C-alpha cells in the first residue's frame, strides 16, 4: 500500500485542472464505465481511443490498477474539464484497492482555460472538439447475455447516443390525454422509467398510444431500444431529475423483461418537513411522513375547463417536529383508503406557499403506502415509540402583535408584506384590507370584454354576425357592445409586489378613459396613443381597498386580490396616518432613529 502511494503522482490532476501541462503522471483506475455507443466508436470513461481499448479486452485495466499516462488531452466541455487519455501503460504490479481518500476536483477559475498537453496530431482526439450545447452524459453500459446485447443506463442517454437499449421499470403510466386545436387533434400518454442510474420520462403520440399503452404496465420491467427520440425535457410536464426525455417512434422496440432482478422499484430524494421552508415555491420534491389526518373527499370546478375535480386533504408529520397539509386529486382522492398512522412516501409533490407551505400531488406523481424502505421503518419506529404523542408545528407564518391588531378590520391598513405574512384570503371567509401602492405594470392583453347594454346586466356578449352582439342571459341582440375593463395590474410598495384584479370603475380611474374609448383606439390602429395611455397609468399611486379570497385555477389553489375601490392619495390623510404611527410606536425627537 505504501509503495503504491509513493508511485502515485499526487496532485497531478489538480495541476491539470488549473491548466498546467505535465509530461506524464501515474494515476489509479478507481472506476471503469463503458459509454453509450456513438457512431460505432468504442469508448470508455475515462475516454480512450480504439488503439488503447485492447487493455480493456485483454483484462489488463481493472479497478484498482495504476496506470502511467503518457499522452493526454484536456477538453473544457459544459463547464467541466474532461481528461482524454491518448496513451498509457498499465502498471500491473501495483494492483491495489482505492488509495487514500480522493476527492472530486472543483472547476478551475473562470479565467483559467485548460490547455491541451502532449497532443498527437494524428489521433482523432488530437483535435479540440467543440463543446456541445446540451449536457454530456458519460455513464456506461453493461453486457447482457440475452439477444438485447449491451444494456445502457438511463443516465447515459443523450441526443448524441445511437443504437441503444435500456432495461428499466415502468414506475408510472399516465392517463391518455386528447387535444383539439386549429392544427388538428390527437392523443398522447406519458410514462416514467427507472433503472439503477436514474429516471426518464417517455411520451407516445397517436399511433404510439394504440401500440404501447396497454403493453406498458406499472411495476413491470421492459427493454426499450432505439430508434426512440431523445430530446431536452419539458420541465413543465415532468418532475424527474433528468435533462432529457424520450419520444416513442414508429419503429421503437419495447419488450417485457422476464428477469426483473437488479432493477429498483422506485427512487426517492426525500425532503424533510422541517426543510420545506427552504424549498422554492412551485418546485417538485419527494416526501415521506406519517399520515396523521385524512379529510373527506370534496369536489371543485376548474375555472377554465369548468370540469369537476375530486380532491382530498391529508396531514403528514415526520420526526423533525413539523406537519404539512397535502392535497391529492382525482382517482387517488376518490380511492384513498390508507389507514391513519401509516407511513406514506410521495414522489412528485409540488410545493405551494399556501398556509406558509403546503404540498400537492402532481398527476405524474406517485404514492406508496408503507413502502419497504429504511426511511419508512425508521419513521414507523419513531412514531410508535414517541412520535404520536408529540406536538407538531406548521410552516404557517405567525402574525406579530402589530399585525394582529388590525385583524378583522375591513379598513385595516396593510403593507404588501403584511398581506402575505398574515395569510389574508387563505381562510374560509373573505378578508378585507387597504394598501397604499404604486402601479408598476398593467397587463395589456384582454383588458376589456364586450358587455351587454341592458341595464344591470354586464354579462359578456358574443358577436354572432358582423355588427350583431348577442347576450344569452337577456336573450337580446345589439349592434354594439359596451366594453368594460377587466384588468390585472402589478403594484409595489417598499415591502414587495403583488397582482391585483380590477374591474370597470377602477379601470377607468387607472387608465383615465372609458374602456369603449380605449378599444376604439385599438380598432382604429392608434397603437401609439394606446401605448401612451398604458405608460401614463404606470407609476400612479393609489390607496386600494381590496378583498382577498381563495380561488382555484388549473387545479391549483391561490389567493386572488380583487380591488373594490382605488382612491388617489390624499396627502393630508396620509400625513395624519404617519403621525398616528409615530405616536403608536412612541417615536419622538429624543429617541429618533436618525439621532
Describe the structure concisely.
Residues 136-149 have a biased composition (Polar residues). The chain is α+β, with helices and mostly antiparallel strands and 595 residues long.
Q: Which features does this protein show?
A:
595 residues, alpha+beta, OB fold (Dihydrolipoamide Acetyltransferase, E2P), five-stranded mixed beta barrel, disordered C terminus, Euk_RPA1_DBD_C, zinc-finger, Rep_factor-A_N
Strand and helix map with partners:
Elements: H1 2-7, H2 12-17, E1 25-28, E2 33-34, E3 44-45, E4 47-48, H3 54-57, E5 66-77, E6 80-91, E7 142-143, E8 150-151, E9 165-173, E10 177-181, E11 184-195, E12 198-205, H4 207-212, E13 221-225, E14 228-232, E15 244-248, E16 253-256, E17 284-294, E18 298-301, E19 308-317, E20 323-329, H5 330-335, E21 343-352, E22 358-369, H6 374-385, H7 401-404, H8 416-421, E23 431-442, E24 448-451, E25 462-465, E26 468-471, E27 476-478, E28 482-485, E29 487-493, E30 496-502, H9 504-511, H10 515-523, H11 527-537, E31 541-553, E32 556-568, H12 571-584
Parallel strand pairs: 4-6, 12-15, 20-22
Antiparallel strand pairs: 1-5, 2-3, 5-6, 7-8, 9-11, 9-13, 10-11, 11-12, 13-16, 14-15, 17-19, 17-21, 18-19, 19-20, 21-22, 23-29, 23-31, 24-28, 25-26, 26-27, 29-30, 31-32
